[in-house]
Backbone:
Protein backbone atom coordinates (compact mmCIF):
# COMPACT_ATOMS: atom_id res chain seq x y z
CA UNK A 1 0.00 0.00 0.00
CA UNK A 2 1.21 3.45 -0.86
CA UNK A 3 2.22 5.75 2.00
CA UNK A 4 -0.41 8.38 2.80
CA UNK A 5 2.04 11.27 2.38
CA UNK A 6 3.15 9.87 -0.98
CA UNK A 7 -0.49 9.70 -2.04
CA UNK A 8 -0.91 13.32 -1.01
CA UNK A 9 2.20 14.38 -2.93
CA UNK A 10 0.82 12.64 -6.01
CA UNK A 11 -2.33 14.76 -6.13
CA UNK A 12 -2.55 17.20 -9.02
CA UNK A 13 -4.87 20.15 -8.59
CA UNK A 14 -5.13 23.57 -10.26
CA UNK A 15 -2.41 25.96 -9.18
CA UNK A 16 -4.89 28.57 -7.93
CA UNK A 17 -6.56 26.06 -5.59
CA UNK A 18 -3.19 25.02 -4.16
CA UNK A 19 -2.03 28.60 -3.70
CA UNK A 20 -5.23 29.50 -1.86
CA UNK A 21 -4.90 26.43 0.35
CA UNK A 22 -1.26 27.17 1.17
CA UNK A 23 -2.21 30.66 2.19
CA UNK A 24 -5.01 29.35 4.41
CA UNK A 25 -2.92 26.52 5.87
CA UNK A 26 -0.90 29.08 7.83
CA UNK A 27 -3.91 29.57 10.12
CA UNK A 28 -4.95 25.91 10.31
CA UNK A 29 -6.39 24.97 13.71
CA UNK A 30 -7.11 21.27 13.95
CA UNK A 31 -9.90 21.45 16.54
CA UNK A 32 -11.88 24.11 14.69
CA UNK A 33 -11.32 23.00 11.10
CA UNK A 34 -11.71 19.24 11.50
CA UNK A 35 -14.91 19.48 13.48
CA UNK A 36 -16.47 21.63 10.80
CA UNK A 37 -15.34 19.35 7.97
CA UNK A 38 -15.67 15.90 9.54
CA UNK A 39 -18.42 16.51 12.06
CA UNK A 40 -18.42 17.03 15.75
CA UNK A 41 -17.15 14.50 18.23
CA UNK A 42 -13.73 13.15 19.03
CA UNK A 43 -10.95 14.13 16.67
CA UNK A 44 -9.34 11.27 14.74
CA UNK A 45 -5.59 10.76 14.63
CA UNK A 46 -3.80 12.74 11.90
CA UNK A 47 -3.40 9.76 9.52
CA UNK A 48 -7.08 8.79 9.83
CA UNK A 49 -8.18 12.39 9.46
CA UNK A 50 -5.99 12.81 6.40
CA UNK A 51 -7.44 9.70 4.73
CA UNK A 52 -11.00 10.91 5.33
CA UNK A 53 -10.14 14.42 4.12
CA UNK A 54 -8.60 12.97 0.97
CA UNK A 55 -11.80 11.03 0.27
CA UNK A 56 -13.93 14.15 0.74
CA UNK A 57 -11.58 16.24 -1.40
CA UNK A 58 -11.62 13.61 -4.16
CA UNK A 59 -15.42 13.85 -4.22
CA UNK A 60 -15.22 17.67 -4.40
CA UNK A 61 -12.67 17.49 -7.21
CA UNK A 62 -14.89 15.13 -9.18
CA UNK A 63 -17.74 17.64 -8.82
CA UNK A 64 -15.41 20.38 -10.06
CA UNK A 65 -14.32 18.35 -13.07
CA UNK A 66 -17.88 17.41 -14.07
CA UNK A 67 -19.26 20.93 -13.57
CA UNK A 68 -21.64 19.58 -10.94
CA UNK A 69 -23.93 22.29 -9.52
CA UNK A 70 -23.20 21.04 -5.99
CA UNK A 71 -19.50 21.93 -6.30
CA UNK A 72 -18.39 24.37 -3.61
CA UNK A 73 -15.12 26.21 -4.15
CA UNK A 74 -14.90 27.37 -0.50
CA UNK A 75 -15.42 23.80 0.75
CA UNK A 76 -12.82 22.50 -1.70
CA UNK A 77 -10.27 25.04 -0.47
CA UNK A 78 -11.17 24.24 3.17
CA UNK A 79 -10.57 20.54 2.52
CA UNK A 80 -7.20 21.27 0.91
CA UNK A 81 -6.22 23.51 3.84
CA UNK A 82 -7.09 20.76 6.31
CA UNK A 83 -5.21 18.18 4.25
CA UNK A 84 -2.11 20.35 4.26
CA UNK A 85 -2.42 20.99 7.98
CA UNK A 86 -2.89 17.32 8.85
CA UNK A 87 -0.02 16.32 6.57
CA UNK A 88 2.25 18.76 8.39
CA UNK A 89 1.18 17.37 11.77
CA UNK A 90 1.83 13.84 10.49
CA UNK A 91 5.26 14.77 9.08
CA UNK A 92 6.24 16.42 12.35
CA UNK A 93 5.09 13.44 14.40
CA UNK A 94 6.98 11.01 12.18
CA UNK A 95 10.13 13.13 12.30
CA UNK A 96 9.97 13.29 16.10
CA UNK A 97 9.44 9.52 16.30
CA UNK A 98 12.44 8.73 14.13
CA UNK A 99 14.86 11.37 15.42
CA UNK A 100 16.40 10.35 18.75
CA UNK A 101 16.89 13.03 21.36
CA UNK A 102 20.53 13.81 22.01
CA UNK A 103 21.48 14.06 25.66
CA UNK A 104 24.97 14.95 26.91
CA UNK A 105 26.83 12.39 29.00
CA UNK A 106 27.61 13.68 32.48
CA UNK A 107 31.19 14.87 32.84
CA UNK A 108 31.90 14.93 29.11
CA UNK A 109 30.14 17.71 27.19
CA UNK A 110 31.68 16.60 23.87
CA UNK A 111 30.14 13.08 23.98
CA UNK A 112 26.42 12.54 23.31
CA UNK A 113 24.19 9.49 23.51
CA UNK A 114 20.71 8.85 22.21
CA UNK A 115 18.12 9.09 24.95
CA UNK A 116 15.68 6.21 25.23
CA UNK A 117 12.09 7.14 24.96
Residues:
Amino acid sequence: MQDILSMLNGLRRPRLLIRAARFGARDYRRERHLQRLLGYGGLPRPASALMRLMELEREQDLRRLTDDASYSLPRHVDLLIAMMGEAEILRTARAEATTPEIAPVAGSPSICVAAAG
Summary: The first strand starts at residue 102 and ends at 105.
